Every structure is written in structure tokens, then in C-alpha cells.
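Predict structure. Chain length: 149.
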Amino acid sequence: MRALIQRVEKASVTVEKEIVGKIDQGLVILLGIKHDDDDNDLEYIIKKVVNLRIFEDVDGRFNLSALDVGAQLLVVSQFTLYGDTRRGRRPSFTDAAHPDLSKPMYHKATKMFGETGLKVQEGIFGAHMMVEIHNDGPVTLMLDSDERR
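Prediction complete.
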């Protein structure tokens, strides 16, 4: 499982000209699910995202987590995080999970993020979305559950 996280001042996701998710200060989490991901991968990503110290303290140092600052989360499904561009000019998405697996896991992820006590908004799985991101810093990090092995 991969999560591209961006610290934001604000962000929103729009589907068919309607805002379906909107946050103020917090994190946008673009979540990609691999064909062999399981609950262990999901738990790793959830814990890592909410506890990662990427918010500044009074001295301007990255010492505070999303939990520490009460960050809001905007979670958007993003199968293209598993795009393989090593050959040719068109990415291959063979590592990305089929929607039959990824859709329930995506919804489980948004539920688990909510169980941390943080406010969670989300995109619409499988929809064509317009995501507006006001990256703060900019701070952008890639997390991959394969790195825990």
C-alpha cells in the first residue's frame, strides 16, 4: 500500500462540479492499494500517517503529528501510485489492486482514519475527481507498506 501525503493549508475534491470533500489544515492522503495488500499493510499506513511528525512546533521544527495538531484528513483513492513506467511510454497498472479488493479496503482505510479521532473527508472511489490542494511548505512524502518488511 502506498500513501502520498501532502501537508495542506486547505484542500477539496470535486466530482461533477460538486464538492464532495473539503478540509482546512491537515493532510491529503492519496492512497494506492496493491493487489496483495492486507490488513497489516493498512494498519501500518494508518499508524504511520497519523503519527508522522511533519507539523511544526513553536520553534518551526517538525515535532508534531497529525494527532498532536488535530489535523483534518482528505483521503482520495489513487491507483496510479502503482503505475509502472519502466518500459514504454504508457504506464502499466498490473500491481494495482482490482476494484473488487481495493474499494472495500479504501473504505476500511477511511473508517480507520476516522477511528483515530481526526476529522476525515474523502473522494468518491472510482470517480473522475478534481483535487484542489494548497500544499503547505511544500511538504510531500511517500509512504509504502513494503518498506516495513
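Summary: Helices lie at 39-51, 66-69, 99-115.
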